[in-house]
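Board notes (copied after class):
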Amino acid sequence: MPDPLSTGLDGLAVTGATGRIGTLLRGIWSNGGADGIAWLARSDEPLPDMLRGRRTLLALAGVTCGDAAAIDSNVTLAIGALDAARDENLDRVFLMSSAAIYGRATGRLSEDRAPTPISPYGAAKARMEAAAAEWTECHPDGPQVTCLRLGNVAGADALLGQLNGCAPSLDVFANGRTPCRSYLGPVSLAAILSRLFACPSPLPPVLNVSAPDPVDMADLLRAADRQWLGIPAGVDAIAKVSLDVRVLRRFVDLPEGCASPERIVAEWRGLAA
């Protein structure tokens, strides 16, 4: 397992601490002895008081489903976090975005590709990124802001994170393959984030965050020793989402073997045990 701790965790605050990703990260970093992190649930008020004396904010708080007003709160939550971070003189803010902003785009999805979301959630994250860019332009004295376009995270996803006693169903495409997605195990995610927090170089406004190669969902289930049911893929099914992480790798080393289905499952099981 990679070491998920570094000096980048000193002075860190995390919002959305009770969400799926926040819960995973808290377990990893707390078990590793990083007990100085300020973990903030969305109900924590006032945010500026909780950020006092901090250097870095990881803003995980967001809404994944609901009506239009609920989904659009992703924008207001992000701007509120940026305002609070500026008021408290933080150095860096990382806003959690999503691979969902790429929609049906094909090929290696790089950060310079214009967002083409198809889901309300993806559209809200694209608006969040645009609002963050506008905020940054209007506040040159504010913290450095980076939006992290995150792929699937084992344990916070709709496949491994929702396994129960029933065999899950997977779309099967005409070539016999199941959906292929950019994935990370939660421990590898924690390691990458901590390395980004500690990175001395200025970071770009947008970064893809994932393992370097996508994995077939069937391979993940095989690694987990789980049976699955194949169903013909519908016309709306997306065969492959592959994040290009070449820019990420300019700034941090990725954990060795983090794209392996066996490694991804082992990290998830290590937390779920």
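Comment from the instructor: The two ends are 15 Å apart (CA to CA). The first strand starts at residue 12 and ends at 15.
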